[in-house]
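Morning F.,

Quick status update on the modeling queue. The single chain you submitted on Monday has been processed. Sequence for confirmation:
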Amino acid sequence: MVPKKILLYDTTLRDGVQGEEISFSLEDKLKIVRKLDNLGVNYIEDGWPGSNPKDILFFREVRKLSLRNTEITAFGSTRHKNKNCNNDPNLKAIINSKAKVAAIFGKSWDFHVKNALGATLDENLAMISETLKWLKSKGMEVIFDAEHFFEGFIANKGYALKTLKKAVEAGVVNITLCDTNGAMLPDQVGDIVKEVKKLITVPLGIHAHNDSDTAVANSIAAVQMGCILVQGTINGYGERCGNASLCSVIPNLKLKLGYNCISDKNLKKLTGVCRYVDDIANLIPNNKQPFVGHSAFAHKGGVHVSAVGKNTRTYEHIEPGLVGNERRFLISELSGRSAILSKAKEFNISFRNELESKKLLKKVKELEHSGYQYEEADGSLELLMKKAVGKHRTFFKLKGFRTIISKDQKGVLKSEARVKLSVRGKEETMVAEGDGPVNALDTALRSALERFYPEVKEVNLYDFKVRVVNAAKGTKAKVRVIIESRDKKDTWGTVGVSENIIEASWQALVDSIEYKLLKEE
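Structure tokens below.
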């Protein structure tokens, strides 16, 4: 029996950008469209053509792309209550977008009709009917988004169903039931979808928001009760608490329930797509995100690591490679020798004897006790391991550094760093300014090394975190600095700890550069 086909409808570029701190340029949007098409998404809602110049330009440019799997969808509302369809500028903009599909939202909750729309119940029904019929008469495939449907159904079932029946009469291809406020729980969604399915012949979809932290669960419940289309966003972007995350919806539907939504091959692209979109949005990825997060298959406790080493099913609900993720073993003061051995295998490092691995484990626990943490600092951990087995070499030695911060009468801050190194038997001194002392120090260090090691030009500092280790000591407390660095191929973390934030930063910067140089060797 062929698994039931579920259509994926992505609204990252429309509903997603309504989320706080989310903004995409025109080129960003086009890049994301290519990625989503390659992932196998059926519909991409690209914006509201009449709302802003960027979206108008986008619909012109997106037509130039050769898309294989996706139908570009224009979003909009039912006609204005005081206009007819022919002179409604938003509807004309949808037609002018040249999109083949239109997704139109209309009010299905009588409370919203009266209080938000300021219309009568009959006026709203006419607006729904006329808008959907008009767009269909223009040759468009039309999806009706029944906004606030679940609350509307609970408050006034008869009226909520009337809005859907108007959509059926208009000839829409799908009616998507929206939990716009994110207020519902899975059993409510499931029961209501089941009842609607008996009364409405048009295929149903689900659009869930995450205000109750149930958007993914609600989407799955809706599918189980008969919905064949799921709307959501990459990484759960969206207004307020976000939308249903397709990054969780897709693997749950495919791997747990056996629905046909994307191919096995495309499923392996999922983690890469999610991190790619985060990168374009300039957001730090949520490491705790299920399936695709950096921590989703990370094991720290000694018992866990030992068990996973014997059989991964002991602490993993799926094989991480199915969604393009990877297993990670974290080293900390909770680790046992099995964790050290697993991590060494990951780094392609072999211990010469059991005593060597035990000494390293003891060293790690001592460093963790003093404030170091290696869960986000694989680069520093690998260097530490290589030093333990004699596979590390020194590329440069510090002769000294100095940082100067000054502020003039106008309040202008200036930062300068001077670094003196011994590199390949030669003394190299470099002075640099920067946006703060750490940036100046980083610039001076790289500049001093570039003549000897041109590859350091490829390293970019991607993230910089400072944590207080022992807060009770106030301004005398130790700080832990974690730096995330990238080059053209990889990402790695390094760590430094000191009572002096500049010294802690220097340790992490040096590890970052040394990791890159050892990697290139």
